[in-house]
Amino acid sequence: MTKKLLTIPVSEAELSAIEAYCAETNRTKTDVLREYIRSIDTRPRENVVKEMIRLKQELQNIQQEKADLEMLLETVTDHSSTIEDDFKNRAKAAKRETEEQFQAITEAMPVAVMISRIGSGEILYANLTASKWFKAAREHFTGRFIADYCINADDCQQLLQQFQERGAVTGYELLCQASDGLPFWVNASLHSLRYKGEETILFALSDIHALKQAKEDLNYAKEKLQAVLDAIPGSVSWLSCQGYYLGVNPHLAEQFGLQVDDFVDRPLGFIQNGKTFSDFITNFIHSSDLSRSEEIQLVVNGEVCHFLVAVQKYDRGNAIVTVGLDVTQRKEAEEALRIAEEKYRSIFENALEGIFQATPDGKFISVNPAMARIYGYDSPEDTIAGINRDNRPVYVNPNDREWFEQTMETEGSVQDWEYQIYRQDGSTIWVSEDTRAVRDGSGQVLYYEGIVQDITKRKQEEENLKRQVAELQIEIDREKRDRQVREITQSSYFQELQAELQTLKFEEEEL
Protein backbone atom coordinates (compact mmCIF):
# COMPACT_ATOMS: atom_id res chain seq x y z
CA MET A 1 0.00 0.00 0.00
CA THR A 2 1.37 3.34 -1.04
CA LYS A 3 1.57 5.94 1.71
CA LYS A 4 0.68 9.55 0.91
CA LEU A 5 1.87 12.62 2.69
CA LEU A 6 -0.83 15.23 3.22
CA THR A 7 0.04 18.64 4.40
CA ILE A 8 -2.74 20.84 5.70
CA PRO A 9 -2.00 24.39 6.71
CA VAL A 10 -3.50 25.31 10.11
CA SER A 11 -3.53 28.74 11.56
CA GLU A 12 -2.88 29.58 15.18
CA ALA A 13 -6.53 30.37 15.72
CA GLU A 14 -7.57 27.05 14.20
CA LEU A 15 -5.01 25.23 16.29
CA SER A 16 -6.39 26.93 19.40
CA ALA A 17 -9.89 25.95 18.33
CA ILE A 18 -8.78 22.35 17.84
CA GLU A 19 -7.19 22.36 21.28
CA ALA A 20 -10.33 23.79 22.81
CA TYR A 21 -12.42 21.19 21.00
CA CYS A 22 -10.15 18.48 22.31
CA ALA A 23 -10.51 19.81 25.82
CA GLU A 24 -14.27 19.95 25.49
CA THR A 25 -14.55 16.42 24.04
CA ASN A 26 -11.81 15.04 26.22
CA ARG A 27 -9.83 13.82 23.15
CA THR A 28 -6.25 14.33 21.99
CA LYS A 29 -5.28 16.41 18.98
CA THR A 30 -3.75 13.36 17.34
CA ASP A 31 -7.01 11.44 17.56
CA VAL A 32 -8.93 14.35 16.14
CA LEU A 33 -6.51 14.89 13.23
CA ARG A 34 -6.25 11.15 12.50
CA GLU A 35 -10.03 10.84 12.36
CA TYR A 36 -10.17 13.86 10.13
CA ILE A 37 -7.54 12.52 7.71
CA ARG A 38 -9.23 9.12 7.45
CA SER A 39 -12.41 10.83 6.48
CA ILE A 40 -10.75 12.70 3.64
CA ASP A 41 -10.78 9.70 1.34
CA THR A 42 -14.47 9.05 1.82
CA ARG A 43 -15.78 12.56 1.69
CA PRO A 44 -15.57 15.06 -1.05
CA ARG A 45 -13.45 18.04 -0.46
CA GLU A 46 -16.38 20.36 -0.38
CA ASN A 47 -17.75 18.35 2.44
CA VAL A 48 -14.46 18.68 4.23
CA VAL A 49 -14.54 22.38 3.78
CA LYS A 50 -18.10 22.54 4.99
CA GLU A 51 -17.20 20.43 7.94
CA MET A 52 -14.23 22.60 8.68
CA ILE A 53 -16.41 25.72 8.47
CA ARG A 54 -19.00 24.08 10.74
CA LEU A 55 -16.35 23.09 13.20
CA LYS A 56 -14.88 26.54 13.04
CA GLN A 57 -18.30 28.08 13.63
CA GLU A 58 -18.95 25.66 16.47
CA LEU A 59 -15.57 26.53 17.89
CA GLN A 60 -16.40 30.24 17.71
CA ASN A 61 -19.73 29.59 19.40
CA ILE A 62 -17.95 27.69 22.09
CA GLN A 63 -15.46 30.50 22.51
CA GLN A 64 -18.29 33.02 22.68
CA GLU A 65 -20.11 30.96 25.24
CA LYS A 66 -16.90 30.68 27.21
CA ALA A 67 -16.47 34.45 27.12
CA ASP A 68 -20.11 34.91 28.11
CA LEU A 69 -19.68 32.43 30.92
CA GLU A 70 -16.56 34.15 32.15
CA MET A 71 -18.36 37.50 32.06
CA LEU A 72 -21.39 35.97 33.84
CA LEU A 73 -19.15 34.36 36.40
CA GLU A 74 -17.45 37.68 37.08
CA THR A 75 -20.82 39.44 37.30
CA VAL A 76 -22.27 36.76 39.59
CA THR A 77 -19.21 36.85 41.80
CA ASP A 78 -19.47 40.59 42.22
CA HIS A 79 -23.22 40.37 42.80
CA SER A 80 -22.88 37.52 45.30
CA SER A 81 -20.44 39.57 47.34
CA THR A 82 -22.97 42.39 47.43
CA ILE A 83 -25.76 39.97 48.41
CA GLU A 84 -23.55 38.40 51.07
CA ASP A 85 -22.80 41.79 52.57
CA ASP A 86 -26.48 42.66 52.43
CA PHE A 87 -27.38 39.37 54.08
CA LYS A 88 -24.79 39.98 56.77
CA ASN A 89 -26.13 43.47 57.42
CA ARG A 90 -29.68 42.19 57.49
CA ALA A 91 -28.68 39.36 59.85
CA LYS A 92 -26.97 41.81 62.16
CA ALA A 93 -30.01 44.09 62.12
CA ALA A 94 -32.35 41.14 62.69
CA LYS A 95 -30.15 39.91 65.53
CA ARG A 96 -30.07 43.37 67.06
CA GLU A 97 -33.84 43.71 66.64
CA THR A 98 -34.38 40.25 68.14
CA GLU A 99 -32.17 41.10 71.08
CA GLU A 100 -34.03 44.36 71.57
CA GLN A 101 -37.36 42.57 71.37
CA PHE A 102 -36.13 39.92 73.82
CA GLN A 103 -34.92 42.68 76.15
CA ALA A 104 -38.22 44.54 75.90
CA ILE A 105 -40.29 41.42 76.44
CA THR A 106 -38.30 40.16 79.41
CA GLU A 107 -38.23 43.60 81.02
CA ALA A 108 -41.99 43.93 80.69
CA MET A 109 -42.77 40.44 81.95
CA PRO A 110 -44.30 40.21 85.46
CA VAL A 111 -42.16 37.16 86.19
CA ALA A 112 -38.49 37.05 87.09
CA VAL A 113 -36.32 36.00 84.14
CA MET A 114 -32.72 34.90 84.64
CA ILE A 115 -30.22 33.34 82.22
CA SER A 116 -27.29 31.26 83.39
CA ARG A 117 -24.56 29.14 81.92
CA ILE A 118 -25.33 25.44 81.74
CA GLY A 119 -22.16 24.16 83.29
CA SER A 120 -21.36 26.58 86.08
CA GLY A 121 -24.76 28.15 86.69
CA GLU A 122 -23.23 31.62 86.47
CA ILE A 123 -25.89 34.29 85.93
CA LEU A 124 -25.57 36.14 82.60
CA TYR A 125 -28.80 38.13 82.68
CA ALA A 126 -31.58 39.11 85.11
CA ASN A 127 -34.60 41.22 84.20
CA LEU A 128 -36.12 44.12 86.15
CA THR A 129 -38.65 41.90 87.94
CA ALA A 130 -35.87 39.66 89.21
CA SER A 131 -34.07 42.75 90.47
CA LYS A 132 -37.20 43.83 92.38
CA TRP A 133 -37.98 40.42 93.82
CA PHE A 134 -34.47 39.71 94.98
CA LYS A 135 -34.04 43.35 96.09
CA ALA A 136 -30.75 43.70 94.27
CA ALA A 137 -29.38 45.95 91.51
CA ARG A 138 -28.62 44.48 88.09
CA GLU A 139 -24.88 44.52 88.68
CA HIS A 140 -25.44 42.54 91.89
CA PHE A 141 -26.20 39.41 89.81
CA THR A 142 -22.95 39.63 87.83
CA GLY A 143 -20.57 36.84 88.79
CA ARG A 144 -23.11 35.18 91.06
CA PHE A 145 -24.80 31.82 90.68
CA ILE A 146 -28.38 30.60 90.82
CA ALA A 147 -27.62 28.60 93.97
CA ASP A 148 -26.70 31.84 95.75
CA TYR A 149 -30.38 32.82 95.78
CA CYS A 150 -31.78 29.47 96.95
CA ILE A 151 -32.23 28.79 100.64
CA ASN A 152 -31.78 25.06 100.19
CA ALA A 153 -28.82 24.28 97.93
CA ASP A 154 -29.98 20.66 97.55
CA ASP A 155 -33.28 21.82 96.03
CA CYS A 156 -31.40 23.95 93.51
CA GLN A 157 -29.12 21.05 92.64
CA GLN A 158 -32.09 18.74 92.16
CA LEU A 159 -33.75 21.31 89.89
CA LEU A 160 -30.65 21.54 87.67
CA GLN A 161 -30.33 17.76 87.61
CA GLN A 162 -33.91 17.41 86.39
CA PHE A 163 -33.16 19.94 83.66
CA GLN A 164 -30.13 17.95 82.54
CA GLU A 165 -32.16 14.74 82.46
CA ARG A 166 -35.29 16.10 80.76
CA GLY A 167 -34.05 19.13 78.84
CA ALA A 168 -36.81 21.27 80.40
CA VAL A 169 -38.53 21.67 83.77
CA THR A 170 -41.89 23.27 84.56
CA GLY A 171 -43.72 23.92 87.83
CA TYR A 172 -40.87 23.29 90.27
CA GLU A 173 -41.52 24.98 93.63
CA LEU A 174 -38.37 26.56 95.00
CA LEU A 175 -37.74 28.53 98.18
CA CYS A 176 -35.59 31.55 97.41
CA GLN A 177 -34.29 34.44 99.47
CA ALA A 178 -33.85 38.12 98.71
CA SER A 179 -30.65 40.02 99.36
CA ASP A 180 -32.02 41.09 102.76
CA GLY A 181 -32.52 37.44 103.76
CA LEU A 182 -36.30 37.35 103.51
CA PRO A 183 -37.56 34.06 102.03
CA PHE A 184 -40.20 33.76 99.30
CA TRP A 185 -41.56 30.91 97.20
CA VAL A 186 -41.35 30.78 93.39
CA ASN A 187 -42.56 28.42 90.70
CA ALA A 188 -39.55 27.76 88.45
CA SER A 189 -39.63 26.75 84.76
CA LEU A 190 -36.36 26.00 82.95
CA HIS A 191 -35.77 25.86 79.16
CA SER A 192 -32.74 25.77 76.87
CA LEU A 193 -31.83 29.08 75.20
CA ARG A 194 -29.03 30.13 72.89
CA TYR A 195 -27.94 33.47 74.28
CA LYS A 196 -25.11 35.53 72.80
CA GLY A 197 -23.68 32.60 70.94
CA GLU A 198 -23.73 29.99 73.70
CA GLU A 199 -26.18 27.44 75.05
CA THR A 200 -27.72 28.67 78.34
CA ILE A 201 -30.58 27.96 80.74
CA LEU A 202 -33.56 30.30 80.81
CA PHE A 203 -35.13 30.56 84.29
CA ALA A 204 -38.72 31.85 84.46
CA LEU A 205 -39.75 32.39 88.11
CA SER A 206 -43.36 33.06 89.13
CA ASP A 207 -43.97 34.46 92.59
CA ILE A 208 -46.19 31.98 94.43
CA HIS A 209 -45.33 33.18 97.93
CA ALA A 210 -48.85 34.52 98.53
CA LEU A 211 -50.35 31.34 97.05
CA LYS A 212 -48.00 29.18 99.11
CA GLN A 213 -48.84 31.15 102.23
CA ALA A 214 -52.53 30.84 101.42
CA LYS A 215 -52.12 27.08 101.01
CA GLU A 216 -50.26 26.85 104.29
CA ASP A 217 -52.94 28.96 105.97
CA LEU A 218 -55.58 26.76 104.40
CA ASN A 219 -53.84 23.59 105.57
CA TYR A 220 -53.43 25.10 109.02
CA ALA A 221 -57.10 26.04 109.04
CA LYS A 222 -58.00 22.53 107.92
CA GLU A 223 -55.86 21.04 110.67
CA LYS A 224 -57.50 23.32 113.24
CA LEU A 225 -60.93 22.46 111.89
CA GLN A 226 -60.10 18.76 111.99
CA ALA A 227 -58.79 19.11 115.54
CA VAL A 228 -61.99 20.90 116.51
CA LEU A 229 -64.12 18.27 114.79
CA ASP A 230 -62.19 15.49 116.50
CA ALA A 231 -62.52 17.19 119.87
CA ILE A 232 -66.19 18.19 119.59
CA PRO A 233 -68.28 15.93 121.81
CA GLY A 234 -71.17 16.41 119.39
CA SER A 235 -72.04 14.86 116.03
CA VAL A 236 -71.05 16.77 112.87
CA SER A 237 -71.96 15.79 109.33
CA TRP A 238 -71.94 17.27 105.81
CA LEU A 239 -74.62 16.38 103.28
CA SER A 240 -75.33 17.28 99.67
CA CYS A 241 -78.58 18.93 98.69
CA GLN A 242 -79.61 15.51 97.30
CA GLY A 243 -79.40 14.04 100.79
CA TYR A 244 -76.13 12.08 100.53
CA TYR A 245 -73.41 12.16 103.17
CA LEU A 246 -70.24 14.01 102.18
CA GLY A 247 -68.50 13.30 105.48
CA VAL A 248 -68.88 13.02 109.26
CA ASN A 249 -66.65 13.60 112.27
CA PRO A 250 -65.24 10.66 114.29
CA HIS A 251 -67.66 11.20 117.18
CA LEU A 252 -70.70 10.62 114.97
CA ALA A 253 -69.15 7.50 113.42
CA GLU A 254 -68.26 6.07 116.83
CA GLN A 255 -71.81 6.60 118.10
CA PHE A 256 -73.09 4.12 115.53
CA GLY A 257 -70.06 1.80 115.63
CA LEU A 258 -68.93 2.73 112.10
CA GLN A 259 -65.91 4.26 110.39
CA VAL A 260 -65.94 7.80 108.98
CA ASP A 261 -65.62 6.48 105.40
CA ASP A 262 -68.67 4.25 105.89
CA PHE A 263 -70.87 7.37 105.67
CA VAL A 264 -69.43 8.91 102.48
CA ASP A 265 -71.87 8.79 99.51
CA ARG A 266 -74.46 6.95 101.61
CA PRO A 267 -78.04 8.27 101.50
CA LEU A 268 -79.65 10.03 104.41
CA GLY A 269 -81.51 7.54 106.56
CA PHE A 270 -79.35 4.51 105.79
CA ILE A 271 -78.95 4.22 109.57
CA GLN A 272 -82.18 3.02 111.09
CA ASN A 273 -82.43 5.56 113.89
CA GLY A 274 -85.95 6.76 113.35
CA LYS A 275 -87.44 9.07 110.73
CA THR A 276 -87.32 12.20 112.84
CA PHE A 277 -83.80 13.22 111.78
CA SER A 278 -84.32 12.33 108.11
CA ASP A 279 -87.60 14.23 107.96
CA PHE A 280 -86.03 17.24 109.66
CA ILE A 281 -83.10 17.36 107.22
CA THR A 282 -85.29 16.73 104.16
CA ASN A 283 -87.69 19.50 105.10
CA PHE A 284 -84.80 21.88 105.70
CA ILE A 285 -83.18 21.06 102.32
CA HIS A 286 -86.40 21.88 100.46
CA SER A 287 -87.05 25.03 102.48
CA SER A 288 -85.77 28.54 101.81
CA ASP A 289 -84.22 28.74 105.28
CA LEU A 290 -80.47 29.18 105.52
CA SER A 291 -80.28 27.78 109.04
CA ARG A 292 -82.50 26.02 111.53
CA SER A 293 -82.29 24.25 114.88
CA GLU A 294 -84.56 21.78 116.57
CA GLU A 295 -84.54 19.25 119.35
CA ILE A 296 -85.21 15.78 117.98
CA GLN A 297 -85.37 12.25 119.31
CA LEU A 298 -83.17 9.47 117.90
CA VAL A 299 -82.57 5.82 118.62
CA VAL A 300 -78.85 5.17 119.16
CA ASN A 301 -77.73 1.61 119.90
CA GLY A 302 -81.26 0.73 120.92
CA GLU A 303 -81.59 3.63 123.37
CA VAL A 304 -83.78 6.69 122.94
CA CYS A 305 -81.63 9.83 122.98
CA HIS A 306 -82.41 13.49 122.64
CA PHE A 307 -80.29 15.72 120.36
CA LEU A 308 -80.25 19.44 119.76
CA VAL A 309 -79.55 19.63 116.02
CA ALA A 310 -78.47 22.83 114.23
CA VAL A 311 -78.20 22.92 110.43
CA GLN A 312 -76.66 25.49 108.07
CA LYS A 313 -76.61 25.68 104.28
CA TYR A 314 -73.38 26.55 102.45
CA ASP A 315 -71.91 26.44 98.94
CA ARG A 316 -74.85 28.49 97.63
CA GLY A 317 -77.31 26.04 99.10
CA ASN A 318 -75.79 22.98 97.42
CA ALA A 319 -74.69 21.43 100.73
CA ILE A 320 -75.51 21.58 104.41
CA VAL A 321 -73.63 21.00 107.65
CA THR A 322 -75.31 19.58 110.73
CA VAL A 323 -74.18 19.74 114.35
CA GLY A 324 -75.93 17.60 116.93
CA LEU A 325 -75.39 17.75 120.67
CA ASP A 326 -76.58 14.92 122.89
CA VAL A 327 -78.87 16.60 125.41
CA THR A 328 -80.24 13.39 126.86
CA GLN A 329 -78.63 14.00 130.24
CA ARG A 330 -79.82 17.59 130.15
CA LYS A 331 -83.35 16.42 129.37
CA GLU A 332 -83.16 13.95 132.22
CA ALA A 333 -81.79 16.65 134.49
CA GLU A 334 -84.51 19.04 133.36
CA GLU A 335 -87.13 16.44 134.09
CA ALA A 336 -85.59 15.74 137.49
CA LEU A 337 -85.41 19.47 138.11
CA ARG A 338 -89.02 19.89 137.06
CA ILE A 339 -90.08 17.16 139.49
CA ALA A 340 -87.91 18.67 142.22
CA GLU A 341 -89.33 22.11 141.53
CA GLU A 342 -92.84 20.73 141.70
CA LYS A 343 -92.01 19.10 145.00
CA TYR A 344 -90.35 22.25 146.26
CA ARG A 345 -93.27 24.35 145.02
CA SER A 346 -95.70 22.02 146.79
CA ILE A 347 -93.68 22.23 149.99
CA PHE A 348 -93.24 25.97 149.54
CA GLU A 349 -96.93 26.57 148.97
CA ASN A 350 -98.28 24.17 151.58
CA ALA A 351 -95.72 24.48 154.36
CA LEU A 352 -96.96 25.63 157.77
CA GLU A 353 -93.75 27.55 158.30
CA GLY A 354 -93.00 30.78 156.53
CA ILE A 355 -90.36 30.37 153.79
CA PHE A 356 -88.68 33.37 152.18
CA GLN A 357 -85.83 34.62 150.03
CA ALA A 358 -84.50 38.11 150.64
CA THR A 359 -81.66 40.39 149.62
CA PRO A 360 -78.91 41.12 152.14
CA ASP A 361 -80.40 44.59 152.66
CA GLY A 362 -83.72 43.13 153.78
CA LYS A 363 -85.87 43.26 150.61
CA PHE A 364 -88.04 40.17 150.09
CA ILE A 365 -87.58 38.33 146.81
CA SER A 366 -90.20 35.66 147.41
CA VAL A 367 -92.38 34.48 150.30
CA ASN A 368 -94.79 31.57 150.63
CA PRO A 369 -98.44 31.82 151.74
CA ALA A 370 -97.57 30.79 155.32
CA MET A 371 -95.12 33.71 155.51
CA ALA A 372 -97.86 36.04 154.32
CA ARG A 373 -100.22 34.74 157.02
CA ILE A 374 -97.57 35.19 159.71
CA TYR A 375 -97.13 38.84 158.71
CA GLY A 376 -100.87 39.35 158.47
CA TYR A 377 -101.19 39.76 154.67
CA ASP A 378 -103.65 38.13 152.29
CA SER A 379 -101.08 36.93 149.74
CA PRO A 380 -97.33 36.67 149.16
CA GLU A 381 -97.55 39.50 146.63
CA ASP A 382 -99.15 41.80 149.20
CA THR A 383 -96.46 40.85 151.69
CA ILE A 384 -93.60 41.74 149.32
CA ALA A 385 -95.29 44.96 148.25
CA GLY A 386 -96.23 45.99 151.77
CA ILE A 387 -92.78 45.46 153.24
CA ASN A 388 -90.54 46.34 150.27
CA ARG A 389 -92.49 49.19 148.76
CA ASP A 390 -94.16 50.74 151.79
CA ASN A 391 -91.09 50.32 154.03
CA ARG A 392 -93.23 49.12 156.92
CA PRO A 393 -91.26 48.54 160.12
CA VAL A 394 -90.70 44.86 160.81
CA TYR A 395 -88.63 44.63 163.96
CA VAL A 396 -90.13 45.73 167.27
CA ASN A 397 -86.62 46.17 168.58
CA PRO A 398 -84.62 48.12 165.91
CA ASN A 399 -81.38 46.66 167.31
CA ASP A 400 -82.47 43.19 166.19
CA ARG A 401 -81.89 44.08 162.51
CA GLU A 402 -78.39 45.34 163.21
CA TRP A 403 -77.57 42.15 165.15
CA PHE A 404 -78.94 40.02 162.29
CA GLU A 405 -76.83 41.80 159.64
CA GLN A 406 -73.63 41.49 161.68
CA THR A 407 -74.26 37.81 162.43
CA MET A 408 -74.99 36.96 158.79
CA GLU A 409 -71.89 38.81 157.66
CA THR A 410 -69.60 37.03 160.12
CA GLU A 411 -71.29 33.63 160.51
CA GLY A 412 -73.26 33.27 157.29
CA SER A 413 -76.32 31.93 159.12
CA VAL A 414 -78.57 32.29 162.18
CA GLN A 415 -80.43 29.51 163.99
CA ASP A 416 -83.32 29.59 166.46
CA TRP A 417 -83.26 33.38 166.50
CA GLU A 418 -86.29 34.62 168.40
CA TYR A 419 -87.52 38.19 168.08
CA GLN A 420 -90.69 40.25 167.86
CA ILE A 421 -92.15 41.71 164.65
CA TYR A 422 -94.99 43.99 163.66
CA ARG A 423 -97.83 42.45 161.69
CA GLN A 424 -99.73 44.40 159.02
CA ASP A 425 -102.36 45.52 161.58
CA GLY A 426 -99.66 46.81 163.93
CA SER A 427 -99.93 43.98 166.45
CA THR A 428 -96.78 42.24 167.60
CA ILE A 429 -95.93 38.59 167.53
CA TRP A 430 -92.97 36.42 168.36
CA VAL A 431 -91.16 34.53 165.58
CA SER A 432 -88.26 32.10 165.39
CA GLU A 433 -85.99 32.32 162.32
CA ASP A 434 -83.41 30.02 160.71
CA THR A 435 -81.58 31.72 157.79
CA ARG A 436 -78.52 30.99 155.64
CA ALA A 437 -76.64 32.89 152.91
CA VAL A 438 -76.76 31.49 149.36
CA ARG A 439 -73.50 32.18 147.48
CA ASP A 440 -72.27 31.85 143.88
CA GLY A 441 -69.18 29.97 142.71
CA SER A 442 -66.90 32.84 143.67
CA GLY A 443 -68.32 33.09 147.19
CA GLN A 444 -70.37 36.24 146.62
CA VAL A 445 -73.70 36.37 148.46
CA LEU A 446 -76.65 36.06 146.09
CA TYR A 447 -79.47 36.18 148.60
CA TYR A 448 -80.67 34.92 151.99
CA GLU A 449 -83.19 32.14 152.38
CA GLY A 450 -84.82 31.10 155.62
CA ILE A 451 -87.75 29.70 157.57
CA VAL A 452 -89.87 31.69 160.01
CA GLN A 453 -92.26 30.19 162.62
CA ASP A 454 -94.87 32.02 164.65
CA ILE A 455 -93.99 31.20 168.26
CA THR A 456 -96.30 33.75 169.90
CA LYS A 457 -98.50 31.06 171.47
CA ARG A 458 -95.46 29.26 172.74
CA LYS A 459 -94.08 32.49 174.12
CA GLN A 460 -97.39 33.19 175.82
CA GLU A 461 -97.46 29.69 177.26
CA GLU A 462 -93.91 30.16 178.46
CA GLU A 463 -94.88 33.44 180.11
CA ASN A 464 -97.90 31.81 181.76
CA LEU A 465 -95.74 28.94 182.87
CA LYS A 466 -93.16 31.33 184.28
CA ARG A 467 -95.89 33.21 186.13
CA GLN A 468 -97.32 30.00 187.49
CA VAL A 469 -93.87 28.88 188.51
CA ALA A 470 -93.32 32.21 190.23
CA GLU A 471 -96.64 31.99 192.01
CA LEU A 472 -95.95 28.41 192.96
CA GLN A 473 -92.55 29.45 194.20
CA ILE A 474 -94.18 32.09 196.43
CA GLU A 475 -96.59 29.55 197.78
CA ILE A 476 -93.79 27.12 198.34
CA ASP A 477 -91.79 29.77 200.11
CA ARG A 478 -94.77 30.60 202.44
CA GLU A 479 -95.34 26.97 203.32
CA LYS A 480 -91.66 26.54 203.85
CA ARG A 481 -91.60 29.44 206.28
CA ASP A 482 -94.66 28.09 208.16
CA ARG A 483 -93.01 24.69 208.41
CA GLN A 484 -89.82 26.22 209.63
CA VAL A 485 -91.78 28.23 212.26
CA ARG A 486 -93.53 25.09 213.43
CA GLU A 487 -90.28 23.28 213.62
CA ILE A 488 -88.76 26.11 215.66
CA THR A 489 -91.70 26.45 218.03
CA GLN A 490 -91.85 22.74 218.58
CA SER A 491 -88.18 22.38 219.31
CA SER A 492 -86.98 21.82 222.92
CA TYR A 493 -84.73 24.78 222.66
CA PHE A 494 -87.70 27.02 221.78
CA GLN A 495 -89.68 25.47 224.60
CA GLU A 496 -86.87 26.18 227.03
CA LEU A 497 -86.64 29.77 225.85
CA GLN A 498 -90.38 30.17 226.10
CA ALA A 499 -90.28 28.76 229.65
CA GLU A 500 -87.50 31.11 230.63
CA LEU A 501 -89.48 33.95 229.09
CA GLN A 502 -92.50 33.04 231.17
CA THR A 503 -90.34 32.88 234.30
CA LEU A 504 -88.88 36.27 233.63
CA LYS A 505 -92.32 37.67 232.97
CA PHE A 506 -93.62 36.20 236.31
CA GLU A 507 -90.74 37.66 238.25
CA GLU A 508 -91.32 41.07 236.76
CA GLU A 509 -94.95 40.97 237.87
CA GLU A 510 -93.95 40.06 241.45
CA LEU A 511 -91.61 42.95 241.64
From TrEMBL:
Keywords: Coiled coil, Kinase, Phosphoprotein, Transferase
Keyword Oxidoreductase: no
InterPro entries assigned to the protein according to its UniProt record, in alphabetical order: PAC (IPR001610), PAS (IPR000014), PAS-assoc_C (IPR000700), PAS-like_dom_sf (IPR035965), PAS_fold (IPR013767), PAS_fold_3 (IPR013655), Sensor_kinase/Photoreceptor (IPR052162)
Residues annotated as domain PAC: 415-467
Superkingdom, taxonomy of origin: Bacteria
PROSITE patterns noted in UniProt: PAC, PAS
EC supergroup of this enzyme: transferase
Annotated catalysed reactions: ATP + protein L-histidine = ADP + protein N-phospho-L-histidine
Residues annotated as domain PAS: 221-295, 340-381
Coiled-coil regions, chain positions: 45-108, 455-482
Its EC number(s): 2.7.13.3
CDD domains: PAS
Entry keyword RNA-binding: no
PANTHER family for the chain: PAC DOMAIN-CONTAINING PROTEIN (PTHR43304:SF1), PHYTOCHROME-LIKE PROTEIN CPH1 (PTHR43304)
Alphabetized NCBIfam families for the sequence: sensory_box
Protein name: histidine kinase
Species this protein is from: Roseofilum casamattae BLCC-M143
